[in-house]
Amino acid sequence: MPERSDAPHRLDPTGAGQHAANERLRARGPAVPVVLPGEVAAFAVTRHEELKAFLAHPDVAKNARHFTALREGGIPAGWPLATFATVEGMTTADGDDHRRLRGLVTQVFTPRRIEGLRPRVEELTARLLHTLGEAAQDRGTGTSGVVDLREHFALPLPMAVICELLGVDTDLQGSLHRLSSLIVSTTTTPERALAANREMADVLGLVVARRRAAPGDDLTSALLAAQAEDGDRLTGRELVGTLLLMVIAGHETTLNLIANAVRALCTHPEQLAPVRAGKSGWGDVVEETLRYDSPVSFFPFRYPTRDLEVGDTVIPRGVPVLASYTAAGRDERAYGPDAARFDVTRRPAARHLSFGHGPHYCLGAQLARLEATTALEALFDRYPGLALAAPDHDLPRHPSFVGNSTEVLPVRLHP
């Protein structure tokens, strides 16, 4: 049954058909009522200019104490999106608390330190490319060279980098990715959601215990040192919450970015020509991918602290609001009538909002760009005939309307 034009839009937990749905949502207005899993009422901001203003609005908060339904007991137990609202860390903090927590992490995520990671990112990329062909052979594909690029390249690169930054030992990395995927998924059952969050807290608690016993040059050790200097600066829950957010944001989004860029280039092979001719750079590919097919679709949550007008719509105080980066990225009002076209020569290239805007702008933006540009350039240099091994529209979606990519990415390494 088609959706009534005035009815709240029910977000598909599987993440299917997001771009088609986004087109309808943008046509309805800059802010649209939506229904989340668990029959939770919310709004989504879908247009570029209105989203940019909303993200930086002084009457919009991130702390869940402003979430009316949660505060009044109206959210079901095991709600799959609860972690985004209740985790204690800088993404759910406002004002002085946000500045305190962000300041601690900023000490590690300095531009100089991120740039200093370039040789390590290049080394990891080269190692993964060396084993990519072997992975195809190991899967019994003979000389066809078909391999799941998501599993063997797009995932292990950012996972290794963020875990090294956080001081996470290699034996814990598989568990952290598995649990991150469950937490980001919007189809997770209440029982699995609760279990995943408990297990994630246990694993991160082990990370903290190991770094407390053997400190190193990593973010976890730095946060523990700050905690020891002044116990009021960082609580135990804030420490685990910060690590949780860094693990998820530090690899899930970059994984999706690399995968979505490969998909876009393989379905628009003509876009490789200006890159190979030097008319556009790999940085342009990354920025256009961020706009055209953002690695994050509907990001939860923000809460108006008063009834707030967004365009001609009033969002009531205390209602959770999602930032729809995939919808805003194809807004014709911002990008012109060809907004739905992938074009690496588009200017200006970095106008998108995929890293957010305002005080909560993504701290890892520079690192994500470094990893993605390095990975894509090396990948297409090594395998210039790289092609999808299955039609893009047939690839199963990652079951989420938060993360935006596919579950697998089978590619043929050689034409």
TrEMBL record:
Q: What is this protein called?
A: Cytochrome P450
Q: Which InterPro entries match?
A: Cyt_P450 (IPR001128), Cyt_P450_B (IPR002397), Cyt_P450_CS (IPR017972), Cyt_P450_sf (IPR036396)
Q: Which domain of life is it from?
A: Bacteria
List, alphabetically, the SUPFAM superfamilies matched: Cytochrome P450
Annotated region (Disordered), positions in chain: 1-21
State the family named in the UniProt similarity comment for this chain. Answer: Belongs to the cytochrome P450 family.
**UniProt biased composition (Basic and acidic residues):** 1-12
Alphabetized, the UniProt keywords read:
Heme, Iron, Metal-binding, Monooxygenase, Oxidoreductase
